[in-house]
Amino acid sequence: MALSMHAATVPMIKTLLEALSAILDKAAAFAEAKKIDPAVLLGARLAPDMFPLARQVQIACDIARGGALRLAGREVPSVADTETTIAELKARIASTLAVIAEIPASEIDGSEDRTVVLKMRAGAMEFTGQRYLVGFIIPNVTFHCATAYNILRHNGVEIGKRDFLGAF
Known about the structure:
- The protein has one domain: Four Helix Bundle (Hemerythrin (Met), subunit A) (Up-down Bundle).
- The chain has helices at 5-34, 38-42, 53-71, 86-102, 105-108, 129-154, 161-165; strands spanning 115-120, 123-128.
- A two-stranded antiparallel sheet has the order 1-2.
- α1 runs parallel beside α6 and α3 packs parallel to α4 (86-102).
- With 168 residues, the protein is mainly alpha-helical.
């Protein structure tokens, strides 16, 4: 049996974002136990020219939400990047998961050949739905979730591979 576009998209996104939310819980507990301002963790980065933790979470959510909506042929509303606390970032993850869960599988399935156009700073990028999923959504959501994990791990939060992988 072939893997449907919905089956290749939604469960992966759900697993990664739920794991991201769980590691944010561990970050909050770590900050409290160590008497560290959580804002320090949210502003942490691995290199001077990379986005900090908070922005990694925002981007992971944006790509996950936008990806599922575009594959479904829906408009992608803009979401302001205003989160300044772990609780607010967890709420963003939860709202992203709610949007994705609301999309019927029938709207994503069959999108393999749907044209998806992304407006980027360097210009528009055009994909087929399948290429968008495997060449853009999956690697980008995974990258930003992994980067968030790495930032927290680098800063001493006790998380491991199982935390990143989440429940499957």
